[in-house]
Amino acid sequence: MAQITILCILLLQVILHDVCYSLTNISVSFDKDACEFSQKSIDDETIYHVTYDGTPIDPLLCSKMTFFGRDSSHINTYRVCVSLLSYQDPDCAIWFGYILTSGQIEIHNCTVLPPATYCSLDSASVFKIQIKTNPYYNSTERVKFRMMVFAQLETDYVLILSVSIGGSLGGLSLMYATYKMFIYVREKTRY
Prior knowledge:
Layout: H1 2-20, E1 24-29, H2 30-33, E2 40-42, E3 46-52, E4 64-69, E5 77-88, E6 94-100, E7 105-108, E8 117-119, E9 127-133, E10 144-155, H3 157-188
Parallel strand pairs: 1-3, 2-4
Antiparallel strand pairs: 3-10, 4-9, 5-8, 5-10, 6-7, 6-9
């Protein structure tokens, strides 16, 4: 009986491995990666974990990370979402903002925290996360945060195209079968 249980567990791990572990988790940090971080595409199979640990950063070149929703085939459209997982800023030393190309701007700090999950309104928006230091406070060493950036599928064009092509081929097949049946019945009923 124990062998069957172990076999079932191993089989489930093999079968469900792709389902459970198909997401790509990428960790990036404002103090280490923001300077080289250009626009990153994100789809429903990729999650970015964005962190900041209080290290001073260049406010002009290294204070922004940009994401846009797109898969590798450039067919499906995605809305970019961000969840603030943890945030410590006891001195109110920074502001951080969510900036979208559609004109939406959300600015947050230690007194105005963002909603649990914030998403762009549409897939056409480029989503930027930007840090700006508070000019009235010089040190950011006690600031720490962690965010999760992910995508929500807005339009599944692959499914739409598949249904359209399948429906068209199905309709043509049905018309062809009906035509063949009509010819067959006409031939059999001739006197």
